[in-house]
Amino acid sequence: FSYFAFNNAEAAELQRLIAVEQQKAQFQAQVHNFTDVCWDKCMDKPSSKLDSRTETCLVSCLERFIDTTLTITNRFTQMVQKGAH
Amino acid sequence: MDNQGVTTDPQLQQFIEIESQKQRFQQLVHQMTEVCWEKCMDKPGPKLDSRTEVCFVNCVERFIDTSQFILNRLEQTQRSRGTFSETMTD
C-alpha cells in the first residue's frame, strides 16, 4: 500500500472520512467548552447527585449561551456592514 | 530500517498506545484537580478533612454527570434543530 498514489475514489473517500472526524472533534470540543462554562455558572458545592435545580440551570446555560453567541454575531455583522468602505 | 518499520512494529505501536493512555489519564487528573479544588477547597487548613474529601468525590462524579447531561442535551438540540451546528461552528 503506497501512501502517495491515491486514485480519485480513494482520495474522495479519505476526504470524507477526515471531514466526519473533524465534525466529531468539533462537536466534542463544544461539549467540553459548554461543560466548563456551565459548570462554573451552575454548580455550587457538588453534592451526591445532580439535582433538578442544577439541571434546569444547565439547560438555561446552554440556551442563553447560544442566544448570546447569536446576538453578538448579529451585532458584529451589523457593525461591519455599516462600517465597510 | 525501511519506511514501513515504524508504523508496522506492533511492540512500538503498543508502547505508543500505552504512553498516550497514560498522558490522557494524567491530563484528566490535572483537569479534575483544578476544577474540584476551585469548588471544594475553602481556606486550606492543616489537613484534608473528610468534608472536603467527600466534596472531591461528589465533584468528580457530578462533573461526569454534567458532561453527560450536556452531551445528551446538545444531541437532542441537534436532532430537532438542524441549524444548531451552523451557528456554532464558525
From TrEMBL, chain A:
GO CC, alphabetical: mitochondrial inner membrane
Q: Please provide the record's keywords in A-Z order.
A: Chaperone, Disulfide bond, Membrane, Mitochondrion, Mitochondrion inner membrane, Protein transport, Translocation, Transport
Gene3D superfamilies linked: Mitochondrial import inner membrane translocase subunit tim13 like domains
Q: Which residues form the Tim10-like domain?
A: 18-78
Q: Which InterPro entries does the UniProt entry name for this protein?
A: Tim10-like, Tim10-like_dom_sf
Compartments it resides in: Mitochondrion inner membrane
Is 4Fe-4S set as a keyword in this record? no
GO BP annotations of the record are: protein transport
How does the record say this protein sits in the membrane? Peripheral membrane protein
Biological role stated in the UniProt entry: Mitochondrial intermembrane chaperone that participates in the import and insertion of some multi-pass transmembrane proteins into the mitochondrial inner membrane. Also required for the transfer of beta-barrel precursors from the TOM complex to the sorting and assembly machinery (SAM complex) of the outer membrane. Acts as a chaperone-like protein that protects the hydrophobic precursors from aggregation and guide them through the mitochondrial intermembrane space.
What remark about domains does the record contain? The twin CX3C motif contains 4 conserved Cys residues that form 2 disulfide bonds in the mitochondrial intermembrane space.
Q: Please give the subunit comment from the record.
A: Heterohexamer.
Family assignment from sequence similarity = Belongs to the small Tim family.
Instruction: Quote the protein name from its UniProt record.
Output: Mitochondrial import inner membrane translocase subunit
From TrEMBL, chain B:
Where found, per UniProt? Answer: Mitochondrion inner membrane
Q: Which Gene3D superfamilies match?
A: Mitochondrial import inner membrane translocase subunit tim13 like domains
Membrane topology value: Peripheral membrane protein
* Superkingdom in the source lineage: Eukaryota
Family statement drawn from the similarity comment of this UniProt entry: Belongs to the small Tim family.
**Subunit record text:** Heterohexamer; composed of 3 copies of TIMM8A and 3 copies of TIMM13, named soluble 70 kDa complex. Associates with the TIM22 complex, whose core is composed of TIMM22.
Indicate what this protein is called per its UniProt record.
Answer: Mitochondrial import inner membrane translocase subunit
Organism from which the protein derives:
Cyprinus carpio carpio
